């Protein structure tokens, strides 16, 4: 074996051993949204045409196309649509039952001739002289097994207990989602997600099948526990990526990085990371070369920043922004039909654009306070608004890493392990697209 994956993944050209704790169809209220940017990453992974349709089409998992959002505030509403004129008609957001999607991905991975998909529980990483050599796990029969490989990919989710060996986690628990399903309920705007900008936090509605609508109520705090009937709860988590480059192992998915799920960007970040890692490792023929592999993995943690930090910062800022500045956010979207919709969709992974969008909303709010003319109270409130916006976004940017997020080309790892065996200029251009 070349690679062992703790969790699940999309392999490419290597012999892969996937160890999944439970191969039955999961029942979760997370991971139900796939942004257009994430859908494009599935295509980059080779899931094109009929293969992709088998996973995401209506007749397969009853996935629903979503063309934008409807925002509601104080009895007013406005609609925002994805800007997808330059993309094929099939490139839109998908929403679905997470379990159905994951189950189809498992089925797709199991058909690959180089993939061994096994149900088991990984108990520890095998470490020798600072290098991860594989994992120990218990198989479905309860037998303790070992799998020795040159590369171990740890993607065992938000509750990962293996991440402590590969990073310094700083997990925040800002709120809980209380979720339920509404059956045969028509939303005001068909094929759109709906966000109620209420107090103290937002409420979301979006279709997950042709007959079901998911309702998620965000409840600040960490002590909500409801198990009555079909009502489910989920602790929302955020965690900046703070990996410790370790020979022989790498973190992916929620084990590496989490953001508030308000914007539904988690799957887009994960799929983008998978595509980037695949492209990096394509030019490394020998995974047993631990020093070279470690250099490539260090580059991965740098090159992923434009996509991940954009979506992470947007999720954190919008969650806090919607609570503190929702009135300005709503009116700016309503009057000018502008919003960071391309950033949210994963199609515009540029942190600088996010920064400008964020403060444009705050400045718009200040402008409204100055109408019809500045007053001491208006100036005071405007100053508080700018300071409040700064107090939201700058700590998030600091956690993401100012240098990696805004100036990745100044980091040696950005150049250290560029693939040297690319066969043509088109591949090189595609690789460079991960930078600004």
From TrEMBL:
Recorded hits in Gene3D superfamilies, A to Z, give: FAD/NAD(P)-binding domain
Q: Which domain of life is it from?
A: Eukaryota
Q: What class of enzyme is it?
A: oxidoreductase
EC number, UniProt record? 1.14.14.17
Q: Which UniProt keywords apply?
A: FAD, Flavoprotein, Membrane, Oxidoreductase
**Purpose of the protein:** Catalyzes the stereospecific oxidation of squalene to (S)-2,3-epoxysqualene, and is considered to be a rate-limiting enzyme in steroid biosynthesis.
The protein in question is named Squalene monooxygenase
What is the catalytic activity of this protein? squalene + reduced [NADPH--hemoprotein reductase] + O2 = (S)-2,3-epoxysqualene + oxidized [NADPH--hemoprotein reductase] + H2O + H(+)
Metabolic or biological pathway? Terpene metabolism; lanosterol biosynthesis; lanosterol from farnesyl diphosphate: step 2/3
| A GO molecular function held by the record | squalene monooxygenase activity
Q: What family does the entry list?
A: Belongs to the squalene monooxygenase family.
Record's PANTHER family? Answer: SQUALENE MONOOXYGENASE (PTHR10835:SF28)
Q: How does it sit in the membrane?
A: Multi-pass membrane protein
- Sorted alphabetically, which Pfam families does this protein's record hold? SE
Which GO BP terms, alphabetically? sterol biosynthetic process
| Residue ranges of every copy of the Squalene epoxidase domain listed in the record | 150-223, 226-379
Which prosthetic group or cofactor does it need?
FAD
Look up the record and report any one GO term of the cellular component aspect. Answer: endoplasmic reticulum
- The organism encoding this protein is Malus domestica (Apple)
Where is this chain's protein located in or outside the cell?
Answer: Membrane
Q: Principal place where this protein is found?
A: membrane
Residue ranges crossing the lipid bilayer per the database entry: none
